[in-house]
Each structure stands twice: as structure tokens, then as C-alpha cells.
Amino acid sequence: MENYIEDIKDLLFEYVPSVVTALVILIVGLFAIKFIVNSSRTIMDKRGVDITLQKFLLNLGSWILKILLFITVISQLGVATTSFAAIVAAAGLAVGLALQGSLANFAGGVLIMIFRPIKIGDLIEAQGEIGIVKEIEIFTTKLTGLSNKEIIIPNGSLSNGNIVNYSTEGTRRVDLVVGVSYDSDIKQTKDVLMNILTSNDKVLKDPKPSVTVLALADSSVNFAVRPWCKTEHYWDVFFETTENVKLELDKAGIEIPYPHRVNINKTE
Q1: Facing residues of 143 across strands?
Q2: Hey, which of 32, 159, 180, 194 would disulfide with 108, CB 3.0 to 4.6 Å?
Q3: How far is Cα 136 from Cα 126, in angstroms, rounded to an integer?
Q4: Side-chain-facing half-sphere of 204: CA atoms under 13 Å
Q5: Which 8-state DSSP code applies to residue 126?
Q6: Where is 110: in which H helix or E strand?
Q7: Closest CA to 126 of 172, 167, 154, 162
Q8: How far apart are CA 142 and CA 37, in angstroms?
């Protein structure tokens, strides 16, 4: 029994200092990484580095530093780094196959940073989703949807798919179709619709808004109503114009046709 106690004491004296030292290194290292990341962010802010690139580089740098810290901690615990490296190398193929999706996402994030098709704050449509770019991380890109939901898209899919960026040009065209009765006067209708557009402060003067006859449909004459606005005013212009079309056409006595149901009763 005494031999067991002595063995336990020997083990404690042998390993406790290493464990304590490793914990100290871990705690100090995490604080140091946080300090380095915050300092780097401050320097980038002062030098005017793009916020999208900032977050990506800081995220990447944080992961690299944490991996180095992990290797340092396990080496302090007595695990030979050469043996650890050999184990990682031997398992590299299996890990690579298991994480090939993650590696593709990482590569996609790098491509997004290089070619810059999007940046934080852009309104984009990709992978069947529409939202404002919130953050571009190492493996994923986060969007804030139009209804304030968070959308997460893998960078691999994002970089390999179609991206519609509504913010690049700074302006957007609102496409509306307004149908009026065949009894309506075309010139009067165009004047009313154009007046709706020109009286809205959010509608740009250049490019000029347009109102044109789009189609002679089955039960209506359809007009293409095309105001231009700044990207951030798109939905304001869309909803305001839609509402004002109904109000102003009613004032002018111009009918907006709607489906009618006819009941036919057969009597024998």
C-alpha cells in the first residue's frame, strides 16, 4: 500500500507542475490572442482597411494563433510535437476526405476575399436567398434576411454559384405593371402615373422614370411603370408607388379592371 502511495506522489510531483504550467500558458495565450486580435483591428481601422477584409483576416488569424497555442500546450504536457505531427500527417488523408466540404468552403472564402464580388452591407441574392451581407467568415457567409432572419450560406456554394449584387451600382429600378380599363384614355393615364413618380422625392430624376404601354392584355391595357431610386429606398418606392397608383387613378376616374364572375343558370 505504501508503495502505491509513493507512486502516486511521484506521479503528482512529476506531472502537476507540467499541468499547471500548461494551464497558465493556455490562459495567458488566450488573453494574448484576444489582445493581438483587438490591436490588429484597431490598426486596420486607422489604416482604413475594408471591414469585410478585416473580419476575414482577423477570424483567420485567430484560428491560426489558437492552433499554435494548442500545440504549445500539448507539448508542455509531455506530448512530443514530432510525434504529434506524425500522427496528424498519417491521419491527413482521412481528415482531408472527411473535411473536404469544409476545405471547399475555406477555399470559397479565400476566393470571395480575392475577387470581392460582395462586401459587408451589400444586398445580395444567392442560393435562393436574399439578404444583406452581415459577415464573411472562414467557412460561411452570414446574411440578414429582409424579415430580419439570419441566413448562413457555405462559402463553397456561394463562390461557385450565381450572385446578384443589388448594391454595387448604388441605384435600382422598380418594375411595376399597372393595368387599366380599355375605356381609359392612354395619354391621361400616362400623365397620372408619371405625376405619381415625379412627385415622390425618393424617385431619382436621373435616370428618368418612365411610363410606357407594355401590353394589350385580355381585359386591360397594361402599363410598365419604371421609377429609379437609391438601393436603400427600393421598398419605400415600391410600396408608396403601388399605394399612390390606386389612390390617384381613383381620383382621376380611371378604372382598374378586376376579375368578374358570371353565373349562368340553365333551365330545362
Answers
A1: 133, 151
A2: 159
A3: 14
A4: 16
A5: E
A6: helix 100-115
A7: 162
A8: 21
Q: Exposure string (b/e) for 209-240, b if CB count within 10 Å is 16 or more?
A: bbbeeeeeeeebbebebbbbbeeebbeebbeb
- Antiparallel, parallel or unpaired: β 221-226 and 176-180: antiparallel
DSSP 151: E
Question: What are the residues whose beta carbons fall under 8 Å from the beta carbon of 254, sequence distance 6 or more?
Answer: 180, 181, 184, 185, 188, 189, 192
Beta bridge partners of 177: 224
The whole-number mean pLDDT for each consecutive block of 10 residues of the chain, a chain of 268 residues, reads: 58 66 85 89 83 81 85 74 58 52 83 89 94 91 92 93 93 96 95 97 95 94 97 94 97 86 61
Give 255's contacts (C-beta < 8 A, 6+ positions apart).
Answer: 180, 181, 183, 184, 249
> Could you say which DSSP state residue 139 is in?
S
Half-sphere exposure of 257 (CA within 13 A, CB side): 16
Cα separation, 53 vs 154, whole angstroms: 17
154 strand-pairing partners? 140
Please check whether residue 104 is in contact with residue 158, taking contact to mean a CB–CB distance below 8 angstroms. Answer: no
**Contact partners, residue 139, CB within 8 Å, separation at least 6:** 102, 105, 106, 109, 154, 155
Residue partners of 245: CB distance under 8 A and separation at least 6: 176, 178, 193, 196, 225
Instruction: Record the pTM.
Output: 0.65
